Structure formats: structure tokens, C-alpha cells
């Protein structure tokens, strides 16, 4: 198999090139990638590998308790408790404000109660004005009576005029009972 002939090949990946081996292991004589190994090199390589592994092994030491660690942790716990208390207080305040808001909205939604309240307020204002200025109340009352009488007279005239017009034309209309 080659770049120009991609056909079947009898070679396998394990038959081509040098293989990885531990340093110092004897190699085949015809390898072009690795020079020939000296006698005793394999033993030296094994000893060096064992020494390296022993040196590179990680064994953590137990932590040394510091004198300040306990005090700092106590301070942190106290700060956390204070933060929790602040949050609880803030939650209570928010709930209280939310309750007041809901009550205010319920009052605004109650139209009947608002109308009754407005009528009571107007009645109180009229009573207060009557106590302070009784003459003004009499004048307003007399004006209301005169306005009522004047409107009644105007209506009666319109009806009388309409009746006279009907009779002049000679047509009589039936009235519904």
C-alpha cells in the first residue's frame, strides 16, 4: 500500500516502526530509530524509575490548626446569624407592607363603601356649613324651591301650548292609559 497504490497490504500497524518500551530495554538490531542498548542499561533504568516514583508520590500532610482559625470561624458564624436576622426582619417588613397594600386595594375596589363614605362626607360638610352660616343655608334652600317651582311652570306651559295646538288643528289624539 502506498500513496499511488491504495490497494490491499499485508503489513499491519504493529509491524511498522519502533515500539515504545522502557528505557534500557534491548532493541532489535535492525531498528533504525533506536540505537543499540549497552549492557546493564535495563537495570539502571528500572532503579531510576523506582526512585522517581517514590519521589513523585503525593502524600498530603494533615492541616495544622491555626490559632486564629477558631476565632475567625466564630466571627463568620456571628455575621451569618446577623445577616439571617436582618433578612428575617426584612421579610416581616415586606409582609406587613404587602398586607397594607392589599387592604388599600380592597378598599378602592369596594364601590358601595366609597359611595357611602362620599355621601357621609358631603352631609357633614353641609351640616358644618349650616352651623357656621345659617343664613346661607336658608338662601340656598329658598333658591332650590324657586328653581323647582320655575321648572314646574315651564313644563306646564309647554304641555298647555301643545294641547292648544292640538285643539286648534282640529285633530284629537288618543292618549294611552
What is the fold's blueprint, element by element?
Elements: H1 41-56, H2 67-109, H3 111-132, H4 134-169
Helix pairs in contact: 3-4
Please tell me how large the radius of gyration is: 56 Å
Low-confidence stretches: 12-18
Count the E strands.
0
Q: State the share of residues found in helices, binned by percent.
A: 55-70%
By helix and strand content, what is the structural category?
Answer: mainly alpha
Mean pLDDT: 76
Biggest sheet overview: none
The helix/strand series, from N terminus to C terminus, equals: HHHH
β content, as a range? Answer: under 5%
- Number of helical stretches of at least 4 residues: 4
- How far apart the termini lie comes to 121 Å
General shape? rod-shaped
Keywords: Membrane, Transmembrane, Transmembrane helix
InterPro entries: DUF3618
Protein name: DUF3618 domain-containing protein
Task: Characterise this structure.
This is DUF3618 domain-containing protein. InterPro entries: DUF3618. Residues 1-68 are annotated as: Disordered. It is a single chain. Helix content is 66%, strand content 0%. It has helices at 41-56, 67-109, 111-132, 134-169. α3 crosses α4. It is built from 4 helices and no strands. It starts with 40 loop residues before the first helix and ends in an 8-residue tail after the last helix. With 177 residues, it is mainly α.
Amino acid at each position: 500500500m502506498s500513496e499511488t497504490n491504495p490497494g490491499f497490504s499485508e503489513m499491519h500497524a504493529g509491524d511498522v516502526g519502533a515500539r515504545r518500551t522502557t528505557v534500557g530495554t534491548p532493541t532489535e538490531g535492525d531498528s533504525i530509530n533506536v540505537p543499540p542498548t549497552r549492557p546493564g542499561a535495563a537495570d539502571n533504568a528500572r532503579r531510576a524509575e523506582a526512585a522517581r516514583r517514590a519521589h513523585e508520590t503525593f502524600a498530603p500532610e494533615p492541616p495544622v490548626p491555626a490559632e486564629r482559625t477558631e476565632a475567625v470561624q466564630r466571627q463568620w458564624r456571628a455575621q451569618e446569624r446577623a445577616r439571617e436576622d436582618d433578612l428575617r426582619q426584612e421579610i416581616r417588613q415586606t409582609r406587613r407592607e404587602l398586607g397594607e397594600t392589599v387592604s388599600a386595594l380592597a378598599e378602592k375596589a369596594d364601590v358601595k363603601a366609597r359611595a357611602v363614605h362620599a355621601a357621609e362626607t358631603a352631609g357633614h360638610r353641609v351640616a358644618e356649613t349650616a352651623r357656621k352660616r345659617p343664613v346661607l343655608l336658608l338662601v340656598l334652600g329658598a333658591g332650590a324651591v324657586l328653581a323647582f317651582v320655575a321648572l314646574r311652570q315651564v313644563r306646564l306651559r309647554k304641555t298647555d301650548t301643545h294641547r292648544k295646538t292640538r285643539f286648534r288643528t282640529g285633530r284629537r289624539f288618543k292618549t294611552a292609559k
